[in-house]
Structures are given as structure tokens and as C-alpha cells.
């Protein structure tokens, strides 16, 4: 399967069979996430892999705003951003780029100022920037899943506070999405998309 096929055949899947996803396939999804690009290579994504049926039932009943279908997933990835390491990792990468001579000197001060500003930004701005990076990793997981015959669905409606409490996620984690996964038990048609004309700004 090539990338274009994966992009075209991916659907949000909300019905799954009982078949378990193997550890190898879970590993392949995490590898796809790991290889995603991120601003200043900061890689803020962190994943908690939920496989315990009781936990998945709890997510469906108590923490996804009435989305009972979540309970049929075989695995739910809690997609988080580590806000405590985000800026430090970005700074370390700037230092690495500077020391290895990759960054031309005329770019250095601009980048250093950019990272400093990001470090001083309010928590909500930091969270949003980290979430942008995590979204790329999650998208790579969704596309990798297609090749592995798995279905996924991005879940954006959830109760972050309840989830952080249940899974003892520290304050430095922001939960930016849930990703359900399993073998599809439905094969929906493609959902409508805007035309190219509608998305081009003339
Ligand atoms: C940021 C984001 C949040 C979403 N949240 C939910 C959600 O909470 N529940 C759900 O069933 N689908 C959710 N979806 C899936 C969308 O409904 C779906 O991608 C869209 O309808 C297009 O369908 P497709 O993915 O099959 O092409 C979300 C998707 C994204 C990207």
C-alpha cells in the first residue's frame, strides 16, 4: 500500500471486532508516531496505551461525553503532550543545531528568540503548540493503521480532568486527543470533503 492509498482509504471507524491487536502492531503504530516531524524536533508526544477492558469501558461510560461506541475499541491511546520537557527539549535541539554548525549564524538569534518567547508564553499557548505537534504524530498513526488493516478514530470530546485522575497522569501532561483502534467491523463510505476550489484562497 502506498501513502496515497492509505490516505484515500482511511475512515473514522467506530465499530470494532473482538480481535486483539498484536503487540507488534501496537509497536508499529507507536513507531509511526515517533517518526513524526515536530517544531525544533521537540517531540512532545507521549502515549499511554490502554488495553484493559475495564479501563476502556470506563472511558466510554465516564470520560468521552456519552460516546458509548468507544467501549468497543480494542486499544485506546491517550495522546498526551509533555509540557514540562517541551521547551527544554526545543532549546537543547537549538544548541545541538548551533554546535553542529547546521544552523547558519544569521538564523541563530531569530530561533533563540523564538524559543525564549515560547518558553515565556502562557500555558494555554504552550499547550496549543505542543498539541499541534502531537496531531502530526497521531495522523501518522492513523495512516499506518490503514496499512495494518486496523481502524482508528480520533476522539476529541473527552473529560481531561477525569482521565488524568484515573490514569495518574502528572500535571505536566496535557491530554490532547484519544485515539481508538481495533479491527474494523464497519466499512463506511468516504465522508464528504470540500472541493479543491473551496479550499484554495484565490
Ligand atoms: C480533532 C478531531 C476530533 C474528533 N473528535 C471526534 C469525536 O469526539 N468523536 C467521533 O466520533 N469522531 C471524532 N472525530 C472524527 C471526525 O468526526 C471525522 O474525522 C470526520 O467526520 C471525517 O470522517 P473520516 O475520518 O471518516 O474521513 C474527530 C476528528 C478530529 C480530527
Tell me the layout of helices and strands.
Blueprint: H1 3-9, H2 23-34, E1 45-50, H3 53-62, E2 75-82, H4 83-99, H5 105-120, H6 123-147, E3 151-155, H7 160-166, E4 173-182, H8 196-199
Antiparallel strand pairs: 1-2, 2-4, 3-4
Helix pairs in contact: 1-6, 2-6, 4-5
Helix content: 40-55%
* Spatial separation of the terminal alpha carbons: 34 Å
Instruction: Give the name of the CATH superfamily.
Output: NADH Oxidase
Q: From the 3D coordinates, which CATH architecture would you assign?
A: 3-Layer(aba) Sandwich
Number of domains: 1
Count of DSSP H/I helices: 8
Q: What is the CATH class name? A: Alpha Beta
Describe this entry's structure for a reader.
The protein is of the alpha+beta class and 202 residues long. It contains 8 helices and 4 strands. The protein has helices spanning 3-9, 23-34, 53-62, 83-99, 105-120, 123-147, 160-166, 196-199; strands at residues 45-50, 75-82, 151-155, 173-182. Strands 1-2-4-3 form a 4-stranded antiparallel β-sheet, sandwiched between helices. It is globular and about 55 Å long. Flavin mononucleotide (FMN) is lined by residues 11-12, 14, 67, 153-157, 191.
Amino acid at each position: 500500500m502506498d501513502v496515497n492509498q492509505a490516505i484515500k482509504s482511511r475512515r473514522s471507524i467506530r465499530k470494532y471486532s473482538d480481535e486483539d491487536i498484536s503487540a507488534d502492531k501496537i509497536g508499529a503504530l507507536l513507531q509511526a508516531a515517533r517518526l513524526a516531524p515536530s517544531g525544533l524536533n521537540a517531540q512532545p508526544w507521549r502515549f499511554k496505551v490502554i488495553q484493559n477492558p475495564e479501563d476502556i469501558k470506563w472511558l466510554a461510560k465516564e470520560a468521552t461525553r456519552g460516546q458509548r461506541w468507544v467501549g468497543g475499541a480494542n486499544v485506546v491511546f491517550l495522546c498526551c503532550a509533555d509540557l514540562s520537557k517541551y521547551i527544554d527539549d526545543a532549546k537543547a535541539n537549538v544548541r545541538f543545531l548551533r554546535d553542529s554548525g547546521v544552523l547558519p549564524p544569521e538564523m541563530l538569534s531569530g530561533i533563540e528568540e523564538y524559543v525564549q518567547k515560547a518558553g515565556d508564553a502562557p500555558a494555554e499557548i504552550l499547550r496549543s503548540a505542543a498539541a499541534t505537534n502531537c496531531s502530526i504524530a497521531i495522523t501518522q498513526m492513523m495512516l499506518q493503521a490503514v496499512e495494518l488493516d486496523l481502524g482508528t478514530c480520533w476522539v476529541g470530546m473527552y473529560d481531561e480532568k477525569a482521565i488524568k485522575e484515573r490514569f495518574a497522569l502528572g500535571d505536566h501532561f496535557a491530554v490532547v486527543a484519544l485515539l481508538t483502534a481495533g479491527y474494523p467491523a464497519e466499512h463506511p463510505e468516504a465522508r464528504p470533503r470540500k472541493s479543491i476550489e473551496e479550499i484554495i484562497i484565490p
